[in-house]
Design brief:
The chain is of the alpha/beta class and 420 residues long. It is 33% helix and 23% strand. The protein has 12 helices and 19 strands. The strands form 4 sheets. It has an 8-stranded parallel beta sheet. Strands 11-12-13-19-15-16 form a 6-stranded antiparallel beta sheet, covered by helices on one side.
Length: 420
């Protein structure tokens, strides 16, 4: 019970849940009342499918997240023109998430064959029909969700001639009004588009900002992918430009990262990284989010599908038994160790390759530390009795001399947790 022991309270409980989740029974009403809410800072992306698969919900709950992004497709709700019906599977999926202490972030998408040929709704009639669908979903589930996100990556999912930001803004304006009318107090998010372009902020996002997009949403959602590059070197300039533009438009709205991540694959496969790199970069991405101004982090994705295994999933597909990748364990450690502690400071931002990010205050402090340039020894100011937690959840006591601990850091972050 020393350097190799598991810290039993949070991560130990998570490990047990992750191990038994695929064989446990469905969450019932008695369990639902007892389920504590997950972290409001950390979520998980698409993968909670609308077949209401309870095993996937239990996997998400085992991570400790408080938000799950879920698509409630327009085509599944308006199967007959003008007739809006909420499928039982959609209700069950949302109810299961709520019962597990997870608030759904409901994505309102995509086209419907009864309107504008099934593409992006851009005609007056098509926009009105989409707004009716948005209002119907909001009336069904109310404001007690993480939010309603309008569409997903508009310029990547509609016909080339319809991709302008102004068309998307017109759609969002109508959908937002419908959601707010149906569920006062609900949060509408958008544009759910890639953050990065070739020279910083994505050019379509610049068009969206110029078209008055921020005035149509309550939260700005962006997808913070960084390609084959680590998160520390790529996301900062674009986030600073985005936040400056929001300030200039007097829109003090939160910024959400509702997608992001890296594909894991075998050595040599183009566009993929190793599972070790995927795991390390995912935790570092989550650790610097608050520093860069993102208040919600939603990695893509919970699981891979059988038909299209992308490699982004924290878990493998059902056909493989929902096998946890390294990223699942590491992300659970991040979520349950940092949790909702307020962001405090970046104590080291890459000097000598070392990063140290501090959360919390007083006697309740957690530091996340890592290196971007091989193994390094970092001297970190900590209090006596501080625990060192690895990316696998193993914990040990640090040796503190003169108010500092000498910590060996590498690509996979470690956590320094002060005694309470």
């Amino acid at each position: 019970m020393n350097a190799s022991r598991r810290f039993s309270a949070a991560i130990g409980a998570a490990a047990v849940l992750l191990a038994v989740s695929v064989v446990a029974g469905p969450v019932g009403p008695a369990q639902a009342a007892a389920a504590p809410p997950g972290s409001t800072r950390f979520g998980i992306g698409s993968g909670i499918d609308t077949t209401a698969d309870g095993a996937q919900v239990r996997l998400a709950a085992g991570l400790g997240v408080g938000t799950a992004r879920i698509d409630l497709w327009w085509t599944g709700i308006e199967k007959t023109p003008g007739d809006l019906v909420m499928p039982a599977s959609y209700r069950t999926a949302v109810d299961r998430l709520r019962s597990a202490g997870i608030r759904p972030l409901i994505v309102l998408d995509y086209g419907n064959p009864h309107h504008d040929g099934g593409g992006g709704p851009t005609s007056s009639a098509g926009i009105a029909a989409f707004a009716r669908y948005a209002g119907f979903v909001a009336a069904t589930f109310g404001p007690d969700v993480a939010g309603y996100e309008v569409w997903n990556e508009w310029p990547n999912t509609v016909a080339p001639g319809l991709r302008s930001a102004s068309r998307y803004v017109a759609l969002t304006r109508a959908a937002s009004a419908a959601v707010h009318a149906a569920a006062p107090g609900a949060v509408v998010a958008g544009p759910a588009m890639s953050l990065l372009g070739a020279d910083g902020l994505h050019p379509w996002l610049r068009q969206w900002l110029a078209a008055g997009g921020p005035a149509t949403v309550d939260a700005v959602s962006v997808h913070a992918y960084s390609g084959m590059r680590p998160p520390e070197t790529t996301l900062g300039p674009a986030m600073r430009e985005l936040r400056a533009a929001l300030a200039a438009q007097h829109r003090p709205v939160p910024v959400w990262w509702t997608e992001g991540g890296w594909q894991a694959g075998p050595p040599g496969r183009a566009g993929t990284v190793s599972t070790a790199v995927q795991s390390a970069w995912l935790v570092r991405w989550g650790a610097i989010a608050a520093h860069l101004g993102a208040v919600l982090v939603v990695p893509f994705t919970l699981v891979d599908t059988v038909s299209t295994p992308t490699g982004y999933g924290l878990y493998g597909s059902a056909g493989g038994g929902w096998t946890a990748r390294r990223a699942a364990t590491a992300y659970a450690v991040l979520v349950r160790t940092v949790g909702d502690r307020p962001f405090a400071a970046v104590e080291r931002s890459g000097a000598g390759g070392v990063w140290v990010v501090r959360y919390g205050s007083g006697r309740d402090v957690v530091r996340v530390a890592w290196s971007t340039s091989g193994v390094r020894t970092a001297r970190v100011a900590v209090s006596s009795g501080t625990s060192l937690v690895s990316a696998t959840g193993a914990t040990s006591r640090t040796v503190v001399v003169g108010g500092e601990a000498a910590v060996r850091v590498r690509a996979a972050p470690v956590f320094l947790r002060s005694p309470r």
